[in-house]
């Protein structure tokens, strides 16, 4: 079925049922598109609408959603982000990731606003899309191969103008930290790769040749060119992002050290891991489709087991999560582990945090050599950590436990392990005292997270004139509730329109034309020129709040309550009078946040009148009809012997 005539949007959703092998081209409802825009918004609604409460994330009833943004594949720069959403097997709640590369651009050019995958194939398959044509093809010859190998084979088979999203051995073996990998190096995390594996879907290959139709092309092009010109002269983008990318964070963002025993100030970061030190391994730079900043490094490993091997997009998160927070300070080992993560298709943050917890438990005597099969977990032992990554992906020995992820590892281990699992809803960014960071982590819809508004709430990484304007207009204040609300709206909308939030998390990246006028006015002009719909700043704010309300509702049906929006604390703090005071302060702030958003202050459930105002009253009816819900305690645990395992060791 062809999509209805729409501008900005393509008007078509591709629905793929792997159980039946049926592929259906469905019309995108225009009212739904207006309410949720695209990307994260469309995916959030689809998950709420189609995933039943209590579903096993690795069961056929889960769905996998991939969506470009409303403004993807237009002339607006930094707008080639792909949103991948599912019920996460890593956390057991909303799980979404956001990847760059060319896939989102190519998918939109093929004529699709979203792909929704359901069911489970009898044998491995991949999905081939070429404009109006889509087919499921056998993938037996690809199963067991790495991301890089599968991508190369599929590109050779279908042509260089295609873009490939796929999984590696981690996804096939249902490793709960497995990622959706895009064009070899871009990762959409939160466990979506394991959902691909559970459905026996190896890859999606796309070729698209159609331009996106715009309502007022001349107006849109004028605005988009102005935005590109500004970013081309923005010192943060040109002198930081384009030179160092997120390596900048190693001396500015206080990376964790040895499972958050401390946070490293700039002068305590090992010299070999500082931003300027990484330049010696750099052989080029790259960027996503439609991005002229090129924030990602291309590097070559100078020695060791993988001497001469190149990789791309080694980010701050890899250096800190697989490096300093695991006690590893060797840059060559970190590059090797980054390449292994990309080859196998596994998220560096979730993998690193799980290994860091395991090492901490090992040094506390909660994990012993008997459990690790003699594999040493000394902080500084890089060779053992590399071997553990192989074992994790292939689900061998102790790696089978690491493959369960942070929260589930602690549940399996018991014996006080959960006391050291510093998480919010299964994801970790370490313990923080009450305030901006702790509240942002607590209310993030996918668990503790730095990309759900945290950095924007404290004004990180943006040009001084932008920050001054945001403060003068009281968009940013000293009140965490107020500022986090603003930051969350900015990031929700960025994820819905397909915009990059910046290698160094900048307001000018997340919100197009923010420099030109009031916060949302420039984006409203862009959306109106693209779609022909009269968007106002109030419409954009409502869209952001609507997306977050649906995500909250989805999590409520997975058993999330106010208790799960808590404050991670180290045991010595948690058990002290000061720790109790901190928790009381945190939950007071949390209830103020709920009230501001129109949620019940005692439960965090969106109120009926809020959902009616946001034009989604059916959400409240369905929450009530499906309840009560068992309290969240992570994803369903499987017998460790029930998983697939093996594949090619890279």
UniProtKB/TrEMBL annotation:
One matching Pfam family: AFOR_N
InterPro entries linked to this entry: Ald_Fedxn_OxRdtase_dom2, Ald_Fedxn_OxRdtase_dom3, Ald_Fedxn_OxRdtase_N, Ald_Fedxn_OxRdtase_N_sf, OxRdtase_Ald_Fedxn_C, Tungsten_al_ferr_oxy-like_C, W-dependent_AOR
Cofactor(s) needed by this chain: [4Fe-4S] cluster; tungstopterin
Keyword terms of this UniProt record: 4Fe-4S, Iron, Iron-sulfur, Metal-binding, Oxidoreductase
Entry similarity comment: Belongs to the AOR/FOR family.
Domain annotation Aldehyde ferredoxin oxidoreductase N-terminal: ranges: 9-210
Domain of life: Bacteria
Single GO MF annotation: 4 iron, 4 sulfur cluster binding
Source organism: Desulfosarcina alkanivorans
Designated name of the protein: Aldehyde ferredoxin oxidoreductase
């Amino acid at each position: 079925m062809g999509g209805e005539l729409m501008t900005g949007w393509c008007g078509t959703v591709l629905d793929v049922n792997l159980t039946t092998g049926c592929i259906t081209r469905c019309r995108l409802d225009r009212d739904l598109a207006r309410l949720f825009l695209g990307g994260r918004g469309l995916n959030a609604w689809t998950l709420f609408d189609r995933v039943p409460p209590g579903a096993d994330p690795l069961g056929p009833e889960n769905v996998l959603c991939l969506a470009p943004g409303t403004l993807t594949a237009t002339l607006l720069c930094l707008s080639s982000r792909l949103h991948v959403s599912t019920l996460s097997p890593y956390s057991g709640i909303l799980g979404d990731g956001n990847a760059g590369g060319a896939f989102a651009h190519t998918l939109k050019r093929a004529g699709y606003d979203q792909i929704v995958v359901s069911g489970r194939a009898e044998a491995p398959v991949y999905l081939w899309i070429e404009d109006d044509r889509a087919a499921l093809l056998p993938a037996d010859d690809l199963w067991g191969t790495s991301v890089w190998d599968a991508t190369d084979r599929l590109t050779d088979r279908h042509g260089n103008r295609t873009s490939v999203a796929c999984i590696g051995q981690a996804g096939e073996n249902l490793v709960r930290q497995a990622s959706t990998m895009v064009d070899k190096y871009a990762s959409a995390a939160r466990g979506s790769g394991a959902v691909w594996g559970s459905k026996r879907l190896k890859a999606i290959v796309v070729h698209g040749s159609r331009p996106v139709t715009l309502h007022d092309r001349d107006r849109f092009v004028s605005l988009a060119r102005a935005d590109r010109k500004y970013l081309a002269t923005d010192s943060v983008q040109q002198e930081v992002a384009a030179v160092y990318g997120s390596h900048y964070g190693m001396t500015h963002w206080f990376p964790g050290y040895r499972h958050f025993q401390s946070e490293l100030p700039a002068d305590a970061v090992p010299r070999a891991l500082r931003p300027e030190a990484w330049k010696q391994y750099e052989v080029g730079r790259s960027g996503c489709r439609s991005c002229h900043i090129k924030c990602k490094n291309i590097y070559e490993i100078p020695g060791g087991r993988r001497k001469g091997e190149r990789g791309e997009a080694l980010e701050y998160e890899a250096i800190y999560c697989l490096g300093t927070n695991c006690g590893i300070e060797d840059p060559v080992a970190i590059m090797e582990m980054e390449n292994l993560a990309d080859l196998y298709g596994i998220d560096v943050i979730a993998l690193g945090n799980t290994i860091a917890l395991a090492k901490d438990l090992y040094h506390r005597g909660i994990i012993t050599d008997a459990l690790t099969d003699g594999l040493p977990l000394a902080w500084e032992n890089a060779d053992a950590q590399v071997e553990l990554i192989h074992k994790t992906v292939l689900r061998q020995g102790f790696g089978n436990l690491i493959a369960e992820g942070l929260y589930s590892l602690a549940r399996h281990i018991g014996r006080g392990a959960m006391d050291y699992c510093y998480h919010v809803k299964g994801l970790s960014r370490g313990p923080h005292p009450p305030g901006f960071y702790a509240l942002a982590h607590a209310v993030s819809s996918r668990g503790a997270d730095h990309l759900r508004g945290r950095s924007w709430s404290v004004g990180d990484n943006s040009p001084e004139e932008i920050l001054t304007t945001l403060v003068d207009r009281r968009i940013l204040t000293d009140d965490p509730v107020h500022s986090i609300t603003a930051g969350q709206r900015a990031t929700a909308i960025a994820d819905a329109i397909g915009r990059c939030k910046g290698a160094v998390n900048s307001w000018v990246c997340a919100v197009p034309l923010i420099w030109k006028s009031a916060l949302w006015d420039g984006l409203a002009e862009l959306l109106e020129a693209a779609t022909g719909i009269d968007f106002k700043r109030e419409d954009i704010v409502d869209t952001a709040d609507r997306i977050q309300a649906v995500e909250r509702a989805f999590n409520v049906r997975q058993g999330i309550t106010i208790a799960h929006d808590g404050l991670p604390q180290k045991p010595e703090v948690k058990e002290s009078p000061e720790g109790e005071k901190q928790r009381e302060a945190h939950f007071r702030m949390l209830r103020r946040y709920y009230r501001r958003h129109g949620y019940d202050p005692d439960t965090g459930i969106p109120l009926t009148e809020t959902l009616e105002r946001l034009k989604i009253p059916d959400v409240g009816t369905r929450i009530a009809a499906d309840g009560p819900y068992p309290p969240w305690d992570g994803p369903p645990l499987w017998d460790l012997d029930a998983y697939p395992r093996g594949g090619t060791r890279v």
